[in-house]
Amino acid sequence: MLRTVKPKNARSKRAMEAREAKEVEDPRTAIFVRGTHPGEKVVNVMTDLMALKRPHAVSFSKKNAIYPFEDPSSLEFWAQKNDASFFVVGQSTKKRPDGIVLARMFDGKVLDMCELGVEGYVPISRISGEKATPGHTPLMHFASEQFDSNPRFAQLKSLLLDLFSAGEVGDGIHLKGIEHVISVTVSPSSSSSTATVAATATTDLPPTSTSASNATLPKVHLRTYTISFQKSGARTPYVALAPHGPSLDLVLRRHTDPEPVLLQQAMKRPKLKKKDVAEGLGKRKRNQEVDEMGDLRGRIHVPKQNLSELDRGSKRMKGLRNKGDDAI
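Below the sequence we write its predicted structure tokens.
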């Protein structure tokens, strides 16, 4: 464990404050770690994934004797040392060849992990064409109901979103800034395998699951495409897709579920300040809006009034009196 260090000057104090918890967190920094026997395929896959993650990616080029599912202490140490919250560990063994572990951190501790096996792989270098600019956030497309119904695929979807996302999404999207899209699909499965997967999803399993149900899970296909906008004769441009790379065929293996207490802390959202609510942030209130000048405006409902029932007393204005009233 790292000892608590007190800042000695203003520069170190600013560096420590930058690592503290924030209401709007910075993009996740991912560390790519090689195991003792990563293999050539795993190294190339990690290189291509790191190219999609840049500039928020750190590479450990040396081999490390690390086993995330047995002892995650090394990940926790590196997370605090490098201010990182995501790890991609590559390891290839005889029992689990060409394996990649996605590990997500929270508050310096391992939140959850998922191991993937790489079966099919086409590198970026083999696909010709224009490449996306480093630092641009890709669009994420998940084309399967399994990502919402099956907890294993839902966990994988959450991990991939945290790996490639760039933090909070604004209100608008600039089309010119979208250069590539990552599409994740699931292979069609037979009725028997689907029933087996649904049965294992409702069964209570230990936190680290190595059950035989992983063999019945369908494969996951990850494809990356370059986006180009062409003239369509209308206001909305025509969108064309071209292969970008890498292309991966993945198999789900071991995984660990997050602890309920740690997950509850990770899902907490900061309370909105009174100033933010007045500016229109947070939950939208009925009949209230903020104009372009930042002023809060409200709308009230006034029922229809019958002007004929107004009191016709003598205290009315002279201009509103009838001609017969003056004679009286």
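The two ends are 99 Å apart (CA to CA).
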